[in-house]
Design goal:
Layout lengths: L1 E7 L2 H12 L4 E13 L2 E15 L2 H33 L15 H12 L4 H9 L2 E4 L4 E4 L3 H12 L6 H4 L4 E6 L6 H14 L4 E5 L7 H10 L5 E3 L3 H10 L5 E5 L8 H11 L5 E8 L4 H11 L6 E5 L8 H10 L3 E5 L8 E3 L2 H9 L6
Parallel strand pairs: 6-9, 6-10, 7-8, 7-9, 10-11, 11-12
Antiparallel strand pairs: 1-3, 2-3, 4-5, 12-13
Helix pairs in contact: 2-3, 3-4, 4-5, 5-13, 7-8
This protein binds guanosine-5'-triphosphate and magnesium ion.
Guanosine-5'-triphosphate (GTP) binds next to helix 7.
């Protein structure tokens, strides 16, 4: 800032003068009354004038000021964001699951962890998923999300949960797809939904059911499939099953429905195993009700491991408020997810697993971006 002195007869005049000469950014720093000789060599002839000290900001000062102001706006915006996050956290029920003291995450990262926990994701799993979507922010000295919550969740899921690419993106080879799982989880309904999807994509499909003893099982399948006029075979022995596969092997895909088996009924599980083992080109998917208690899910997975399932199908997500359990189970077992079903309607209520879909399922629509 440059300092100048000017003289004026009144403050009013000084203000106008300063504006005129130095512009509107100039400031009057001080003023004082001084006595001046009217004629230099006649000291007894004096009058009073105002001496004004003016500060004139130079370009550099202006830039600094601007920078300071921008800094303040940044601070305000950060503060606003923090307040919003704190409010979100307060709104989120059971928000005390992860507290400020106990962890090394930023507020918004903690907020995301808590959202996951509230949806049934285990605390350790939630922390790992979020941690993998974070970078260290030196300014706040904590781990912070690299992106908005939704994108970060997608990223974290991507690093921790396996999904199977859409059935048809894999290859064009002949495939047999079998659905196994406990009773009533939705195997037959899901088979029908997948049959529709495959058909819509131009695949030639046949269906074989191994469920010949439950009353109405074959009728139920027929009802689903008749609309599509798909060939259907009912195999009541492993021998028949192999014959039926032979008959339908000129098609693109054979879908195999099985009778539900309790994970506690080892004999029936082994019976089913006798049908399915050593069948070439067969992928077996374990169908699990997303509402099942997690402990029961692990028991089921253990008992059905004899089928070496290629992945999970999770059903009835429309009936659960805690979809987090499917994340826990997939995280712990590393078995990939093929698809998720979200209602009884055939063929609509199904979605192939994507990270976007999983993120939506857990924290809702992407509101941030
Ligand atoms: N809400 C809801 N219901 C479903 C879903 N999938 C299937 N269901 C219903 O669950 C019930 C059982 O479905 P099925 O497809 O017969 O189950 P399953 O596993 O074949 O049963 P079993 O053959 O007896 O072992 C039916 O009433 C279906 O409509 C889903 O995603 N959401
Ligand atoms: Mg069935």
């Amino acid at each position: 800032m440059k300092i100048k002195k000017i003289e004026a007869s009144s403050l009013q005049e000084a203000v106008e003068e300063v504006k005129k000469i130095y512009g509107k950014d100039a400031m009057i720093l001080s003023s004082k009354v001084i006595k001046k000789n009217i004629i230099p060599f006649l000291p007894f002839l004096r009058r009073s004038v105002l001496e004004i000290t003016v500060g004139i900001p130079d370009e550099e000062d202006f830039a600094k000021e601007l920078q300071k102001q921008e800094g303040i706006y940044d601070e305000i915006n950060k503060l606003k964001e923090t307040v919003r996050e704190v409010m979100d956290m307060v709104k989120t029920k059971e928000s005390a699951s992860v507290t400020i003291e106990e962890n090394e995450f930023s507020l918004r990262a903690m907020n995301l962890i808590n959202k996951l926990i509230n949806k049934g994701v285990e605390k350790e799993v939630a922390k790992k998923i979020v941690e993998d979507a974070c970078g260290y922010d030196y300014e706040i000295g904590r781990l912070d999300l690299k992106n908005d919550s939704f994108e970060s969740l997608k990223e974290g899921l991507n690093q921790n949960i396996n999904i199977l690419k859409d059935l048809l993106e894999e290859d064009d080879n002949f495939k047999i797809i079998a659905f196994v799982g406990p009773t009533g989880v939705g195997k037959t309904t899901t088979l029908a939904k997948i049959a529709h999807i495959l058909r819509r994509r131009g695949k030639k499909i046949g269906v074989i059911t191994l469920d010949s003893f439950r009353v109405g099982a074959v009728e139920q399948l027929k009802a689903f499939l008749n609309i599509m006029e798909l060939p259907l075979r009912v195999s009541d022995t492993p021998q028949k099953f192999r014959e039926h596969i032979g008959e339908l092997s000129s098609l693109d895909v054979i879908l195999v429905d099985t009778a539900g088996r309790s994970q506690y009924d080892i004999i029936r599980l082994q019976e089913l195993h006798a049908f399915l083992h050593r069948v070439p080109a067969m992928d077996i998917y374990l169908t699990l009700n997303a509402n099942l208690q997690e402990k029961a899910m692990y028991e089921t997975i253990e008992k059905f491991s004899m089928f070496s399932p290629k992945g999970f199908i999770f059903t009835k997500l429309d009936e659960t408020v805690y979809p987090g359990s499917i994340i826990n189970v997939s995280f712990r077992t590393k078995l990939p997810i093929l698809c998720l079903t979200t209602g009884q309607r055939v063929p609509d209520d199904i979605m192939m697993a994507t990270y976007e879909g999983l993120a939506q399922l857990i924290i809702g629509e992407n509101h941030e971006g």
